[in-house]
Here is the input.
Amino acid sequence: MPALPPVSDALKRAFDPARFAKAAAEASEALVGHLERAQQRHAPSSYPAPSPEQERAHWQNETSWTSGRKRMHDQVIARSNHLHDPRYMGHQVAAVLPEAATTGMVTDILNNGQAIYEMGPSNAAQEDLLMSEIGGQLGLPPGCGGVLCHGGTLGNMVALMAAQRKVARDMGLDSWQDGVRAFPQPLVVLVSARAHYCIDRAMRTMGWGADGTVLVQTNEKHQMRVDDLQAQIKHVHDEGKRVLAVVGSSCTTSAGAYDPLEDLAAACRQHGIWFHVDGAHGASAAFSDAHRHLVKGIEHADTVVLDFHKTCGIPALCTGVFYARHAESFLPFSQHAEYLWDDANDLDWWDTGKRTFECTKRMLSTRLAAIKAEYGWDIWGELVDRMWALGQALATLIERRNGWELAMAPQANIVCFRPSPLQNHHADRWNELVKSLRKRHLIEGSGYVVQTEFDGKIWLRCTLMNPLTEEADLSQMLDEFEALLPSVLKNMDAQ
Here is the structure.
C-alpha cells in the first residue's frame, strides 16, 4: 500500500487560520467602505448600467481572474447593484441589515448542511423552534410550525404540494406513489390575476399544465374579487374539476396589493378548500402594529410563505413555509432513504429533509436566530413601518405634481406611476414613451427604477426597500424623470 503523501504547501496556506484572519479583515474593510459610500450617495448612480455585452467584455479582459481575491472583491463591489444606496428603488431584495451578513461568514465556515439532525444539529433545533415562534407572530394558531427553504418560488410549490397530498388523502388516494394519475379529476389552483407567476409555474411543475391555474378577476385596487372567486369555484366544479387551493396574495409583487384574506378564508371554509397565502413580500406587515390590518385573515390560512430576504433585512435566499398545523409540514414528501433515517413515516421534526424539497440546505435558521438575539422581532416592524411610509411619501409627491398619475394608491412599499398621457400627443404610443423614459433614466439617472404592466399599460415601478431613503431621494428621482421627458418626447416627434 503506497504511503499517504504529505499535505501540500498550497493546501496548508488555503486552510491557514492566520490567512483567513487577514482575508476577513480585508473583506470587512472593503464592505465598510462600500456601506459608507453607498449611504453617502457617493456613486453617480446606485446602478452600474453597462449593457450585458459591455459587462461580459469587461470580465473577459479583467485581470482580477489571476491577480487575487482582493481585486476580485473590489471589482464585484464596484460593478454590482448598490442596494444600500438610498437611491436604489428597483427590485424586491433587501438592503441587508449589515450585521446580518456576519452570520453568513460564520455559517459559511461551519457549513453544516441540513437534511438530518446529525448534519446540522444546532440549526435543526433552531429551525423548529423559530418557525413555530414566528408563525405565532404572523397570527397562526398554537401548534403551528414550518420549514425554511431557498426562495419563495420553491416555498409556494412546497405549500401547494402539501395541499395536493391533503386532497389525495381525503379522497383515500396516494398521490406520492401514483402522481397526478391518482386523481379521478383534474386539480386547479385559484389565484389573483395579479399573482406572482411562480404559482402557475408550480402547478405546471406538479403536472397540471397550463389549465392548472385559474385566474380570478381583480378590482380597481388590484385585489382579488371575492364574487368572482365564488363564480370560479362554481365554474371549476361544473367542469368536473376540483379546487386544490385558493391562493391569496399579501401582497402582489406587481402592484403591492393585499387580497382580502378574511373573505378568501371564509370562502375556503365554506367549500372545504385549502387556503394558502403567498406572503413572500408583504406578510411581514403582521410584525407592525400600524400595518397588521393589511393581513387580517392570515390567521385562518393553512399555509403561508414569507421571504425573509425581502422586507426583513436578511440576505437572500431565506424563505419560511408556515403551516397552521405542524404535522401537516410532513405532507409534501415521503421518501425511503434508509441511509438517512430509519422510517420515512416518522414525524421527526429534527430531520428537515423529510419536509423540504432540498436535501442539503444552508444554515438558514441561524440567520433568524441572529436577528432574534441581536434585535428581537421588533426590528421587522420597524423596517415595515419605514418602507411602507416611504411608499406613501412617494405617492403623495406624485399626486402633487402636474402631469403624473398613480396606477393605484399604494398599500405597501411598491408604487407604480407614469407621466399622464398628453391629449392628442402620442397617446397611442404612450407605452413606448414610458419604456424609453425608463431606459434613458437607467443610463442618465442617479437611481434605479423598473417597470410593470397592467391591462396593457406600462408603468414605472418603485419598490422602496432601503429604510435610509429620504424624501429628497424620492424628489430627485421624480425631477430626473421630468427633466428627461421633453427630450424623449422630442425624439418621438422626430420619428
Observations:
- The chain has 17 helices and eleven strands.
- The domain at 106-337+346-374 is CATH 3.40.640.10 (Aspartate Aminotransferase; domain 2).
- The chain has two domains: 17-47+82-94+378-495, 106-337+346-374.
- Confidence is low (pLDDT under 50) at residues 335-342.
